[in-house]
Amino acid sequence: MAPRPDPFQALVTTGEESAPLxxxxxxxxxxxxxxxxxxLQQAIVLVDxxxxxxxxxxxxxxxxxxxxxxxxxxxxQPAAREKHFKNSGRPREDFLAVITHEDGELxxxxxxxxxxxxxxxxxxxxxxxEFGVLLEDQIANGLNQKLGTTHLRGSGIPVxxxxxxxxxxxxxxxxRGLNAVREKLACCEDDVQAFLDENNEPGASFVxxxxxxxxxxxxTFCDSPKAVWEAYYKILAGEHKAHCxxxxxxxxxxxxxxxxxxxxxxxxxxxxxxxxxxxxxxMWKYDKRPYNGAAFVCFxxxxxxxxxxxxxxxxxxxxxxxxxxxxxxxxxxxxVMYTARGPVLVELNCRLHGxxxxxxxxxxxxxxxxxxxMLMDVYxxxxxxxxxxxxxxxxxxxxxxxxxxxxHIEGVLKCVIPSHFRRIEALPSYYSHMFGVREGDxxxxxxxxxxxPGEVTLVHNDKDQLAADYEKLNExxxxxxxxxxx
Length: 486
Hints:
The protein is of the alpha+beta class. The protein is built from 13 helices and 20 strands. The protein has an eight-stranded antiparallel β-sheet, with helices on both faces.
């Protein structure tokens, strides 16, 4: 694609100040002349490059081929945006532009991107985290329209909100004859009562959750009608996300999902799709257990291959799900419960697997490729490598457990107990670790993903050794590895 002339020159200043747009969009061009002097002729738009998006951003820069424009969606946290430049190791000056999108102002955001990328080609629009999944499609489709091009990939999903709305996802696949969770979207108290009247079997259990969300925030196990009502009111009031420090403020409360409790084992299916062609890059099995009063705390996820129990059936089901919702291009992180009636979709996350990308390098070691690199290959390289990897995970070079650190105490973190952590590092399969909290931070009791204080990755080519180390690690974590101030 040839560089484009500058039809928006009047929108960008060339003085010493940040370059504002006439429409009021927040556009920062850290170096006002960078648009004109950069030797690179292509740009990539990264929408909300947080969590795994930090690694996506890193790998884009490592190519040395692209200028990078950040677009912050209206769904992302202002505080997290400010921390991004320090945490990612890239100062603002490294970016062609930093644009803050405002709700309902898509055209202004598109014009800001076009102004920032004058005389260069926009090669791709990619989303880094859950916050940006809707805006990613809107920007890609909008730029294609303004530029008269078709090369910028979007998901292709006909109903955009299907990317984030669990209720829409379930209804869509149910209408295509696929297994779907039995549920009701409760928009008022009458809906709650109707659901309970329809599901009044003795001993019935339920799950109550927000209509949109991530990280298991607000997902509540209920073993009685009274518990259903309590969870319903708590989600309506926003109490379920109070510990997230405004992280999920953007999730609407149009309704609360009331669902049957799916009994079984939960799996992750990470796939990349290129023009409707689906390839699963990795599959993981969750180990979720009750902890600190929460019913579904993630203890770990274990890498799987197609020969492992239930995996082939789950992969066939997930491929049908992606076709049912119309997903054409991009990354998918699906969560599927294997039940007595077969696989059932828990939720479809239309983005890269999250977890701050701690899975990327272990997946590369174990599988020989990973979801992030395949997404980049599809968007930036025409899928040349993607075309040559297996469509499903057939074999693995090594085995992997990614184990969530846990805390049964809370308070201001004083330290990680050195003697306990040395025992973790001494495990034969220990590979790496990461902390989500530092000394002086508030340590929370672990009840969901946002309250997980860190992660330990175990990798070994002996599956029995890996299993033994996982059990030993759980023993150490149960003893407690954190000390809080008195």
